Amino acid sequence: MSNQPLTLWKALSDYNLDNSVPTDLPFHRHDVLCAAPNPSDPGWLNGYVENDPNQRWGEIPANFVKAFARVRVQPAAV
Length: 78
Known about the structure:
The chain is 0% helix and 42% strand. The model has no long low-confidence stretch (mean pLDDT 89). By secondary structure, it is mainly beta. It has strands at 6-13, 32-37, 44-49, 58-61, 65-73. It has a 5-stranded antiparallel β-sheet, with no helix packed on it.
């Protein structure tokens, strides 16, 4: 991942998602997520939980969240 700023959506999760699928991002209901559309699948987003200091990325079902703000973020160093 590049260290260039990214434009992402902040979204509030409506549901929990566990990590039963390795590519899914686990999160809890009411977590704030930073996400971008998944270009290969419009039903999914790519993102991370906002308060995760490691910014671990994973896939998020688009129908599990509600976007509320567009933001520019600085990715964590990889």
